[in-house]
Write a structure and sequence with these properties.
By secondary structure, the chain is of the alpha/beta class. It contains 14 helices and 20 strands.
Amino acid sequence: MDDDPEKIGKKIDGIPVLGPIKDVALLLRTNPADEAIIAMPGSRKEYHKELYTILKNANFHKIRILPGISQIVEGNAHLIQTRSIDLQDLLGRNPIIINLKESLSYVRGKRVIVTGAGGSIGSELCRQLLSGGVSRLYLLGHGEYSIYQIDKELRLLQEEGVGEKAALVPVIGDLKDADYIDYILSHLKADAIFHTAAYKHVPLMEENPVAAIENNVIGTKNLIDSAIKHNIKRFVHISTDKAVEPVSVYGASKHICEQMVMDAANRGNTHFVVVRFGNVLGSRGSLVPLFQQQIEKGGPVTITHPDIRRYFMTISEACSLVLKTGGVGENGGLYLLDMGEPVLIRDLAEQLIRFHGYEPDTEIKIDYIGLRAGERLDESLVSKNEILTFTDYNRILRINKKEPAAIDIPKLLEKLYPVCLFDTSQPEMYRNADRLKSVLKEHFILS
């Protein structure tokens, strides 16, 4: 089916092209097809919404969609890349067209490590890197099952002709183990690291603050030190809007990581870049999967506050822009992905309820449960000490500091280490959450 008048009536391998879609699809209601594939990777979100409604009304029970055009190298799409359509295909902005082959030229034929490779961002980076011609892709993570899953998926994509013949190497390990990380990096001989691994769930990290700092801060410090020691050429660090004037332990941990990575640009020969962005639609542990589970059991959908807003972009767009920034970003540079306008979470919940065929409040109730520890109504993308400037690249902004960072990282780490790692001279400090928070509150206004 197609809407293009020049294509309607022609035949492809003997099969007639029917159209317009909205008329033809409804004629198929008497003999509904099992499946529809939307093969329009460059089309607008509004048209995806219209198509989805048309196909649903025509009794198509399974609707799949090709990945965004920024994920397709040289215009070649494969059936194996199709996936079930979901809310992120209908929400957000219209896709930006990024030449993935051109963007990834700096890692073509290179050895690349992705930390947190089994996570939402890490796994999507792996899919796009596979298409970009890396010679060896190391999937590093401490979750056995998530690494198994992405490794299996990438091998299936390769079998079906996606990407090039990159060697895939799953690596199970923990960034908190400095000796192990140093050993691994000395043996892998990688050219680039994309560091996505982090504990991210704000309320959970408020209840486990030592774990947040140990994993996010000390793990990142171990990776930075080892990358410099073993002359890894490029290090791209993923950050978050919650690092901006943080009110949570998670946000504070990511703020410290940003500064550590930028400070590391003055050491050794490694090229360090930080990329900051807000929420991504559909990531594990995020709002959309939670709302979907609540809708499937009949509600209620729970929202912390009727006025809470967040910045959102799709995982695929975020990863394409991260990969682009990793190649064009200056050493020690802090970059922000253009997130557009913040989304009212209540509106997101209502759209998701309707996506599942229900009416908000009447069929699926929405309950407001109050802000949790470490949460705020609105997130900022830049702090009062930061200035945004445009770059030559669409949706990639540069952040410059008005004044040098006020935190003395070595002194801060000196105070944090005895809390996270057992020190025989200070045994009372080990896992002392109160001590940890008092140290952080010297620099951050935590809730």
